[in-house]
Design a protein that fits this description.
- The chain is an alpha/beta fold.
- The protein has 2 domains: 7-49 and 302-398, Aspartate Aminotransferase, domain 1, CATH 3.90.1150; 52-296, Aspartate Aminotransferase, domain 2.
- It has 13 helices and 13 strands.
- The strands form 3 sheets. It has a 7-stranded mixed β-sheet, sandwiched between helices. It has a 4-stranded antiparallel β-sheet with strand order 9-10-13-12. Strands 1-11 form a two-stranded parallel sheet.
- 44% of the residues are buried.
- The structure holds pyridoxal-5'-phosphate.
- The site of pyridoxal-5'-phosphate has 13 residues, from helix 5.
Length: 399
């Protein structure tokens, strides 16, 4: 029966099919998360106890100081100031408080930023392999996702292909650096070229193109790599962020949209984003997360430990014959599947108690993704399984 639900929503669910299929299998796995034989590399979820600083901050700020402590909260001035100071220090851009919109994570930041500027029938360019939900969010607004491929194995920003994909209906381009799942950080020169493309394309248009910069992993950087925001190179760029990565506490949701002072039509955008947050179902972080933000801003998982885990995974899998991409940032290592059918290879690994995310879930068949948020014990225990699976694949390919 199709009459029961919204046509737009039915269409929006279509790109999620491989993800939902995978999730069903994954939920069988997490039915027993304490099974000592399970090695879970699927998602950017924690596999160690939460950082004590997070617990301390939440306990401290849970105690009400006045009657309105848990009243409705939108973007509270104290939390906005924490974000503003952090952004100015990290990017050297003089953001204003009025242009920072606190959201429940990058998820809501992306959704509300899009909702503020796109209309049904608009085209939104996204880069593939993408974060799983871009297409669904775009389709959910009756807009059209336009896919531009990022090519293995360099995973460079495909500026020329983006330029070729722009049409009079293009309204937004989503760029994610450091990139999930390749771990690539786009260099300044490429972002500059992209900015020039979008500036030229937006000229003489009544409805300009917005660049949505998904910076979820901008503080998960390896090897002293620096992150550069595309906001330096395009006036109509919005910065979208989540604290879910540095805190590795994605269930405690807080993030933001930030607009740079050089953004044209700021007044209209402020109103549109506030309205988008309202119609998206009050898409602001809860009161407690906002109070705690001053403390949480200072907290981060141990990036050096994450980098050591990356190096270990790369070395051990490389020695077994796997081809893996060394990430410059993010939580992830992308690995070429020894079988063309990545879902079949993920099943081989699962039979050995090792769970990875097959590329079919993120538009990159022939690859799979490992999350480095697994703990060191899981890495250690997974190695015989990785070895058995690549050996079994070799036998299958040979036969
Ligand atoms: C590229 C990218 N963008 C956005 C998000 C959403 O982050 P959050 O769930 O913290 O809002 C994620 C989470 O995995 C991501 O990988």
């Amino acid at each position: 029966m199709t009459g029961a639900t919204s046509r737009t929503i039915r269409e929006a669910v279509e790109p999620l099919a491989p993800f939902l299929r995978f999730l069903q299998r994954y939920q069988q796995l997490i039915a027993n998360p304490s099974d000592p034989n399970v090695c879970d590399f699927c998602f950017g979820n924690p596999h160690e106890m939460p950082l004590p600083e997070i617990t301390d901050a939440l306990i401290r700020w849970a105690k009400p100081q006045h009657q309105m402590w848990f009243a409705y909260k939108t973007s509270e001035p104290e939390a906005v100031e924490v974000v503003r100071a952090s952004l100015v220090a990290r990017h050297g851009i003089p953001f204003e408080a009025a242009d920072i919109f606190l959201t429940n994570g990058a998820f809501a930041a992306i959704t509300c930023a899009l909702r503020a500027v796109i209309d049904p029938g608009d085209e939104v360019i996204y880069l593939s392999p993408p974060w799983f939900f871009y297409r669904t969010i775009i389709l959910g607004f009756g807009a059209t996702p336009v896919r531009v491929d990022i090519r293995p194995t360099r995973f460079d920003l495909p500026v020329d292909a983006i330029a070729a994909a722009v049409t009079p209906r293009t309204r937004a381009v989503i760029v994610n650096s450091p990139h999930n799942p390749s771990g690539r950080i786009y260099p300044d020169a490429d972002l500059q070229r992209l900015g020039a493309v979008l500036e030229a394309a937006s000229e003489h248009r009544e409805r300009p193109i917005y660049l949505l910069s998904d910076e979820a992993y901008s503080r998960i950087l390896f090897d002293s790599n620096a992150f550069r925001t595309p906001l330096h190179h395009y006036r109509r760029a919005m910065l979208l962020y989540t604290y879910g990565k540095t805190l590795l506490a994605p269930g405690q949701r807080i993030g933001y949209i930030a607009l740079p002072p050089q953004m044209p039509d700021l007044e209209q955008l402020r109103e549109a984003i506030f309205t988008a947050q309202t119609v998206t179902g009050f898409a602001w972080p809860n009161a407690l997360m906002q109070y705690a933000l001053g403390d949480l801003e200072q907290v981060s998982i141990d990036i050096a430990a994450l980098q050591r885990r990356r190096d270990r995974v790369l070395a051990d899998l490389g020695a077994m014959g796997y081809e893996a991409i060394s990430p410059e940032g993010t939580f992830y290592v992308l690995v070429r599947s020894p079988l063309t059918d990545d879902e079949a290879f993920a099943t081989l690994l699962a039979e050995a108690g090792v769970y990875v995310l097959p590329g079919a879930v993120f538009e990159l068949p022939g690859w799979f993704r490992i999350s480095l948020t697994a703990n060191d014990g899981m890495v250690e225990r997974s190695l015989p399984g990785f070895r058995r699976a690549i050996e079994a694949a070799a036998v299958e390919v040979a036969s």
